[in-house]
Amino acid sequence: MKTIHLFEEHIYLISNHSVARNPMFSSPSMQNYFKLKMEKYLKPIAEIIAYSLIGNEFLMLVKLKKRDDFSAHYLSNPKNVIPEDEIPESTYIFSQAMANLQVSFVKHFNHLHKRSGTLVASRFGRKLVESKNEMNELIEKINKGEERSHYSGIWVNEIMKEKKPMTSEWLYSEVFKGGAKCTEGYLNAHLANLGACFEILPSYQLPSTNNFFFHQIFKIFRQKAHP
Questions:
Q1: Cα dist. 85→8, 82, 91, 97, 168 in Å?
Q2: Of all helices (H) and strands (E), which one includes residue 64?
Q3: Among the four 83, 111, 128, 203, which has the fewest Cβ within 10 Å?
Q4: Minimum mean pLDDT range among 58-62, 105-109, 158-162, 167-171
Q5: Is pLDDT at 21 greater than 70 in this prediction?
Q6: Maximum distance among all alpha carbons in the chain?
Q7: According to the model, what pLDDT value does residue 69 have?
Q8: pLDDT at 152 > cutoff 50
Q9: Alpha carbons within 13 A on the beta-carbon side of 80
Q10: Radius of gyration of the chain (CA)
């Protein structure tokens, strides 16, 4: 079954790709910009286990933080002044963070290359990682920086001559294998005890009655019924 919703304290593979054969990561500066925004928007609610930024796509392996972290992050925005029992599900908060990350990156890309319009697919991919072996295999593949998305007739111009991957290989170097402290916001899965993430796996999606939008619609009807 396809992963739809995300749950706290579990590990997910997050991905997206460009549309219309556009090169997302046309230079190291674009990769660095994405990495900075990735840290800004995801660090409060997730730990980054591995990532790869190459050509037309990004891959991120993340461990979501606790519900309290999601709630605190949501309420840190002055616009979100609501009772704690009305804070949306963590999957919604994570999706908003991903939207902010992608929009910020696309605006910068469009400004830099004097273009407009869509750059990345509207909905990012998400997959629940269900075992330690699967996680380790994904870390190895991601750190190799191999592209999963291949397009025929892709642009052949100056902008795509350099397609070197930027990955989290540094996080699994000999320095960190020796027990060095990881940079805040990152997690070396080979050093951390993540067995609990796979003991009781969550469902792939929320029941409809637990959906944030369902509660918002119900709230509107309730307010109209009791003005």
A1: 17, 8, 16, 20, 37
A2: strand 57-64
A3: 83
A4: 158-162
A5: no
A6: 64
A7: 97
A8: no
A9: 15
A10: 19
